[in-house]
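Long-time lurker. I teach an intro course on protein structure, and each term I like to show students one example going from raw sequence to a predicted 3D structure in token notation. This year I'd like something fresh instead of my usual example. Would anyone be willing to generate the tokens for the chain below so I can use it in lecture? Attribution to the forum is fine with me.
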Amino acid sequence: MKRELKNLYNQLQSYKEKSSGLFGSGISWTILYLFLRRHDDVKKELGLTDIEYDLKKYSSDSEAYLYPFDDIVKPFYKFLKSNNPEVFDGIDLNALFDLETDISSLTPEEVIAVNTLIEASGIDDFSLNNFAIEEFDEFFCKLIQLTEHRNRQRLDKREINSELAKFIGQAIPAGGKVLTIGDETCEISYQIRSKKCDITNSNFSEQNIWFYLRGVISGNKELKINRNEWISLLKDEYDFVFINPPVGKLDSSFIDHFRDKYDHKIKYKNWETLYTNLGLGALNNSGKLILLLPEGYLYQQRNEFKNIRKKIVESKHLKNIIRLPRGLFKPVTSIRFIIFDIDKSVETEEIQFIDGTEIKPIVSPKNKEDLHNLFNELDFFWNGIMGYYPYVAKATLKRIITNDYSLAFSNFLNVSNQPERYIREREEKLISLSNVLEYLKLNSEKNLTNVPVLSISDMAESMTNYKVIAEDLSRIKSKKSLKRLDRSAILLGKIKGSIKPSYFEYRNEAIYLKQNVVAFKVQEGYDPQYLIHELRSEFVLSQFDKVETNSTIPSFSNRIFSNIYLRIPPYDRQKEIVADNLQQIAKEKIKEAAGLSDDLQYIEKEVFSSFAHDFGKILLNVSSNIEVITNYLKELDYRGIISLKDSALFEEKAEKGESIGEVLKRLNSNFSAAQDFLESEVGFYTGEKDLEVKQVNLLEVIYKWKKRQSQNGYSILVGDSFTPLGENKFEDFIAQYFAKVNTNDLFSVLDNLLTNAKEHGFKAKDNDCQFVIFLQQGTSPVGNLQISKMHIGNNGNPFPEDFSCEDLFKIHHKGPESTGKGKGGYSVKRRLNKMGATIKCNSDILPKDKYPVQFEVSFKPVEL
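-- Reply from a regular --
Happy to contribute to a lecture. Here you go:
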């Protein structure tokens, strides 16, 4: 910002803090006056409409009578109405600008006070000679942002930054009739001011009007503001439409209002689909539509989303889909957004997919250099200057229809675009998983007793234990429907990140699969063991990781298997690769076994007597690892791949005590000694709950916890900035909230806070008892890490006068009517601290009058 303007900005801020004499906070009047001063000094050069006011007498020693309202405010109101007659007709502009005092009583002293500040900043005039358009615009926008204190910034606000606006603006035809919706700062209008478009910006609030004025004094004299975007969208006259719609479900009252007022029936239930349909209808015969939408729009499987995608695809006007990196719109950082480029002037048989996340996976709106480089490179791909994998891929309409109108990037921008980049040997081929494995449609059975059941949690984590045998599974009684598997098959989990490829070896007893496990028959010519190795390879697992999912628990449909590719060599080579991999794993496990033996000796001699509690957990893990390694090495010995008589140190001949078999024997002996020592010396053995802290989706944990609660006499409401607090279903949420937690500890925290509400807050309340959890996310200022928060509250009685929320977290502190030991709140704090989280006794999201008891839990930042 130029020095004089920076001085003025600082002086205005200081004056605002010291004085409440200006109207409102002083900011509305100041912006109005500075607009008029700038307008007066640039109107000739920019060809702007004259506003009939006289400002000179307020900056001179003139003794003329001064009537600021008549001299300044009325002409300004007249200017607004003449430029936008339909918009401001019948509007009380005083009320619109939220001026707290009667503006008609504006005194000359208040005008002179602002002039004095201008002069003190060293500014003689605001002409283009002193301040270029870009220089004054930076100052004016920063001043407008000071009005945000009046209404807390919306959590779902997605402000169009300058680089994104330039990127979109290059698609706008010069001199065209343009409509922009959701560009609250008029940034697109500002960036295309040289194109002299007839442009309408459909936003209507005090702040939006200031940004509209920003466009006017930047030379965009054709710019208009629209009070009602629905009237604009129901026309079919625009050359270009940009829409940045709200996200989430429509309210039924809005649907009724829209039908009654505009005689237009809405068949959609979500904002994104409604705006898409109206945007398409607002174009003329050669118009362009740019939509800015959450990525889930591409693959959401509900009929409403599927049908609108089908309509767009079959119109043959969808040219490009551009995926943008995470972090572009704060505070929503976990959701990626996409750009739909629709052009009615052309028909195309293929759609181009452009992946900005390959350029930069995550960006910050504050890093202008990164944004500039990102959109500069995307511009090359968008305009066809260059395009190659992994940044760009094209898909025919036929291929999109085959994928059931899902437009997920992983369907079309995947390893099949450049197979030569991934094959390891000349005779190897990339083949779709669905062409190698045949999906088995299994019969389901209910009301089962004493049958072996397999779920994802029972499937192997590692290659050393990938076989599933009926005798090893837990036998349960189940009323639910389970799938019966009575043949050998490859098994995959359907949860993203937990596919756990396994092999069921049928031995005359069937097993039953839960819904999150799918079975495949191995086609002829493929070795099952090789396929397990390949499915567990980083090459395949990374493909599964890239699969987009629209559910909060990231599961995927069977359809995606056709877009996962395996590296398939000739059959004999498959066998060789398996043998080589097994030998390599054997070497690694032998080294691991030797290390475990040393660890056990150290535990026995040095540590257990002092730190038995911690090392009880270590002993359990060691026991599990020993059993797995022992069985695996014995199986390799049986199959002739290794010999237990071989040297554990990989020497040609094993010295005494150094053979693999002897190391295993010593390993088991050391474990038994450590276990005996721990039991006899300390009287303690394992069995403690898992202490591990894992990165999880908080929504998944919350809904598991909620399912356990009776909700008898109270209700548990969950929400976020897109999904208002209510009886929402798990699938209603579109954002994801990640944190590193111990699930059992988090369950305990929620149990404790709910118990406190039931036993104290809800005691004297007859009905409508609510326990609420509101999720929020943000970005760490360093490293672009996601920070997740839980705002927890209840609408019961507040804490008594002699017992504060802070007291709740003090050990042994009891309330006046408490019969407990006072450890509950301290336990909450201790468990949260253990996982790196903090808790405080207020929320800046939940209204205090509705939820008098409230907490805010902040988790450690995590990488996405």
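Some talking points for your students: DSSP finds 26 helices and 28 strands in the chain. Residues 286 and 515 are 48 Å apart (CA to CA).
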